[in-house]
Amino acid sequence: MALIVAKFGGTSVADIPAIENVADKVVREAENGNKMAVVVSAMAGVTNQLIQYCDQVTTIHDAREYDSIVSTGEQVTSGLLALALQKRGLKARSWQGWQIPLRTDLAHAKARIEAIDIAGLKQNLLDGEIAVVAGFQGINDQGRITTLGRGGSDTTAVALAAALGAERCDIYTDVDGVYTTDPRIAPKARKLPKVSYEEMLEMASLGAKVLQTRSVEMAMKERVPLQVLSSFNPELGSELPGTLLVDESEVMEKHVVNGITYSRDDAKITLRNVPDIPGIAAKVFGPLTASHINVDMIVQNISPDNRSTDMTFTVPRVDLAKALDALNKMREEVDEKVEIIFSPDIVKVSVVGIGMKSHAGVAQTMFQTLADKGINIQLISTSEIKISVLIHKDYLELAIRALHTAYGLDKEEDAIS
Amino acid sequence: MALIVAKFGGTSVADIPAIENVADKVVREAENGNKMAVVVSAMAGVTNQLIQYCDQVTTIHDAREYDSIVSTGEQVTSGLLALALQKRGLKARSWQGWQIPLRTDLAHAKARIEAIDIAGLKQNLLDGEIAVVAGFQGINDQGRITTLGRGGSDTTAVALAAALGAERCDIYTDVDGVYTTDPRIAPKARKLPKVSYEEMLEMASLGAKVLQTRSVEMAMKERVPLQVLSSFNPELGSELPGTLLVDESEVMEKHVVNGITYSRDDAKITLRNVPDIPGIAAKVFGPLTASHINVDMIVQNISPDNRSTDMTFTVPRVDLAKALDALNKMREEVDEKVEIIFSPDIVKVSVVGIGMKSHAGVAQTMFQTLADKGINIQLISTSEIKISVLIHKDYLELAIRALHTAYGLDKEEDAIS
C-alpha cells in the first residue's frame, strides 16, 4: 500500500470552500488505497495579517515570539482540514510541529529541519488515520516553536516524504506544473511531464516561482519523487497530471534545453577604471557583503592599458540604492577615478537543460537567435546546465519567444501551423 | 519581592493599541519591584471567528481539533504582548499551555486543570523575565491541546497564582470592580472594595457576569486574593482600585446584604395536578435531565385534597421549548390530568450577604419592600447567604432600586440628598 505526502499551499486552502475541495481530493486518494499524510499552509492572507500585527507592535522582532505567532496560521488550517476529513467519514487528526515532533536547529524564522520522529505519526498512518501536518513549523531543543522561512511548507512536505519513505510527494498549488517557459509570455509554452532535480533547481533559483529552491535541494538529496500540480484541476496526484521531478536518468525528453526562465528583479552595475591590483575584488565586494547584498553574474575585463580593470555584476533591484551607496564610499577610499555606471532596465534570461552536458553549440544557438532579433547581450554567465544573459528589459518577451522556438520547445500543434 | 499574576481579557487586548496599554501597565507594576506573570485571552472577536470556521466545516466537532484551532487566539496575543514588553526594555517571553506544561484532564473544550509544572516558569521569573501565559488552554496526557471552556483564562490565572504562591491575582476587565448591583439599573450602586469568596460565588452564579463561577470556586479553595479591576482606568492593581475577593473574616463592610443580582435568562414552569406518589419527582425531572436542561428553584406544594401536588421550577429560557416538549411526553405517560403552565415573563432577583448567617429578618425586609411596591412574589428560594425571588419582568428595575435602598446600600452622598 502506497504512502503519499500531499502538500496544499495558501491559495489551495484560502477559505472554507477551498479546504472542502482539498478534503475531497484527499478522500479520493485514500479511497484508491493510499495512506495519506497531508501538509497544509496557512489560509491565504492569514500569515500576512499575523506578520502585520507583529510589525505594528515593533519592527525589531524577537524571532521566537514571531515564530510562535505566525505558526498559528498553519495550526488553524490543519485542524479545519482534519474536521473536513472526519465529516467525510475518514479517520484524521492534526499534528503540530511540536507534536510530531519535527526537530529543527535554533535559527528562528529560518530554521532547518534536523530530524523528524516519525514513530507516532507512522503508527497512526498504519491504523488508517490521515495525518494532517501543520507545515512551515517545528520545535527546537529549547522547546520553542520555530518556523522554516519562505516556502517552508514545501520543505516540511519533502522532509516528511523522505522520513516516511513515501512513494511520492505531491505539491498542490495554483499552477498545473512546470512549463518550458512562462505561458503568459510565450503562449506556445508546454507543460513538462518530467524535469530533473538539477534543472528544477536552476529554474527555481533563476526565477521560476513554482517551488522554493530549498525544497528542491532536499528532494534531490533525498531522491523524493516530487510532483507539482494544481489543486484546482479535477485530477488526482496519482494520475500524474502535473510535472514530476525525477533523476536525470529518468527524464525522457530529448531536448537539450528544457526551460527558459527570466528574472525582472535585478539591476546591473559596472565599475570602470578599477585599479588592477591584488585584493581589489575583495575591496570592491566587501562593502556589499557587509550590507547583506547578494551579488550575482560577476564579470571582469582587463582594460586595454593593462593597468585598470572593468567589473560588471548584478544585484537585486530592491538593493540598488543601498549598493550604490556602499560602492560610492568604496570609491572614495580606493580611487576617485573609478566610475560607477548602473542600470535597472535589464532582465536576466536563462536557458536550462541537462542536455547541455553532452551537446555542443547550445550557447551558440542562444547568441545567434538573439543576434538575429537585434538583441544586444550585455553580460553572459554560464554553469554546467544553464546559460544566462542580461538584455535590455524591452526585449524580454521577444527574446523568450524566439529562444523557445529556436530550442524546439514550442507546442507541436502550433509548430505545424 | 512580590509575585503578581495579572489577567487581561478579550476587550483589554482587543487590538494592538489595547495590547500596548496592557504592556504599559505591566511595565509599571514590574518597575514597582513586582515579579509578573501575565495571562491573556484572545483578541476580541478572534475566538468567535475561529469557532465560526469550525462551524462552517461541520457542526459536529471533534473537540480535539476544535481545541487546537481555538487555542491559537491566545497564542497570538501572548506573543504580541511579549513583543510589546520587550520593546519597553523588559525581559519577557510567551508560554503556551503545553510549554509550561499546564496539565489538564481529557475533557476537551471543558478541561479541568490537574497540575501546573511551575519549575521552568518560576526559574525565568526569578531571572527577572516576565511570563506571558496564553490563557484558556493546557495539554492532556495524550499530548493534545485542551481548552478550559468559558471563562477559562480566569481559571488559568487563578490556578497559576495558586501554584506560584502569588501575592495576588488581578483580573483586568472592562468593569472597574464588583458593584452592590448593576449601576445601569440602580445609579446609586456602589463599588465594593472587598467581597467574600462565598458572596461572589453566589453573585456569579446568580447572574453577575464579572467572573466565572469556576475561577471564584478555585480562588476560594486555594485562598487566592483575587482582584477585579478595569484595564481602562489608569490605576495599577497594586493600588487596589478594584474589588478584592477575600476570606469572610476580612470583609469589613457591615451590611447584612452586599449585593443584589438579577437574571433575565430564566422561564417558569408550573405543573398542576401531579399525582402525589413516591418517585413522582424523578419521573417529572428525569426527562429534563436526559435533555440536559438545568432545573433551578424547585418548589413543591401539597394540593388541598392531599392526593395531588403542584410543582413550580425554572429552566433556562433558551431551553423552554425543549423542556415543554419533554414534559408533554412525561404527561402522556404519567397522567393526562397534569396541567402544564409556563411563563417566560419572569426575572429572578436575589439578595446576597454573608451577614445573613447571623442576622434575622433579612428575608422579611425583602418581602415587605416588594409588597410595599405592589410587586407579587411568584417563587422563593433561599440558601445560607442568599434569598432569590421570581417576579414579573416589568418590575425588575423597581424591585432592584427599592431593595438597594432598603438594605442601606445606596451611595452615601445620594442617601444624604
CATH topology of the largest domain in chain A: Carbamate kinase
Helix/strand/pairing class of chain A, anyone?
A: alpha/beta
Write down the overall mean pLDDT of chain A: 92
Spatial gap, N to C terminus of chain A:
46 Å
Short structural description:
Helix content of chain A is 35%, strand content 26%. Chain A is an alpha/beta fold and 417 residues long. Chain A folds into 2 domains: 246 residues, Carbamate kinase (3-Layer(aba) Sandwich); 164 residues, 2-Layer Sandwich (VC0802-like).
What does this structure look like?
The structure is a homodimer of 417-residue chains. With 417 residues, chain A is an alpha/beta fold. Chain A folds into 2 domains: 3-248, Acetylglutamate kinase-like (Carbamate kinase); 254-417, VC0802-like (2-Layer Sandwich), CATH 3.30.2130.10. Helices cover 35% and strands 26% of the residues of chain A. Chain A has helices at residues 16-31, 46-57, 63-70, 72-87, 119-126, 152-164, 197-205, 213-222, 280-290, 320-334, 362-372, 396-406, 412-416; strands at 3-8, 35-40, 92-95, 102-104, 113-116, 130-134, 137-139, 145-147, 168-173, 194-196, 226-230, 243-246, 259-263, 266-275, 296-302, 308-316, 339-343, 346-352, 379-383, 386-392. Chain A has an 8-stranded mixed β-sheet, sandwiched between helices. In chain A, a hairpin with a 5-residue loop joins strand 7 (137-139) and strand 8. The radius of gyration of chain A is 24 Å and the shape is globular. The model of chain A has no long low-confidence stretch (mean pLDDT 92). The interface between A and B is medium-sized, with 35 and 35 residues.
